[in-house]
TrEMBL record:
It comes from Moniliophthora roreri. One of its GO terms (molecular function) is nucleic acid binding. This is Integrase catalytic domain-containing protein. It comes from the Eukaryota. Transmembrane segments: none annotated. Coiled coil: none annotated.
Amino acid sequence: MKLHFTSGYHSKADRQTERANQTLEQYLWMYCTYQQDNWDVLLPLIEFAYNNAPNTSTGVSPFFTNKGYHLNITVHLEYHLASQKAHNYVSNLNDIHQFLCDEIKAAQEAYKTMADN
């Protein structure tokens, strides 16, 4: 483990923060509208998805790391949702969750390929 000193104005020096920002940017890029006027609505969904997605190096989610248990995020769409806003929230959450699952699988395959060579 190496110690890296950084200044508050040079984010490139802080690799962990830079990687988290890169992930956040990727999520926003995938789900923002062309006008980029819905990013503020997406932030809670992105935060939820990020905190519940397993990290590729540790295999556990940030939420599990902090709390010691996994959230039950099972959504049953067969139940009648009270509002269209709730339905949209669930739909967006499912889309983000599926995207994250696909990204995790792709990252695991890439790591496996590099390790096998």
